Amino acid sequence: MEINLISDTVTKPSLEMLNYMNSCNVGDDVFKEDPTVNALENKVAKMFKMEKALFFPSGTMTNQTAIKIHTNPGDQLICSKTAHVYNYEGGGVSFNSGVSCKLINKERGFFDSNDVLNSINPPDFYHSPKTSLVCVENTTNKGGGACWDINELKKIQLVCKENKLKYHLDGARIWNASVKNGIDFSFFGEIFDTISVCLSKGLGCPVGSLLLCNEKDYNEAVRIRKILGGGMRQSGYLAACGLYALENNISRLEEDHKKAKEIESVLKKLYFIKKVEKVETNIIIFEISDQYRSEKFIEILQKKGVKLIGMGDNKLRLVTHLDYSSAHHEKFLQLISDVSL
Ligand SMILES: *Cc1c(COP(=O)(O)O)cnc(C)c1O
Question: Which CATH number fits domain 3-9+252-338: 3.40.50.150, 3.40.50.2300, 2.40.160.20, 3.90.1150.10?
Answer without folding.
Answer: 3.90.1150.10
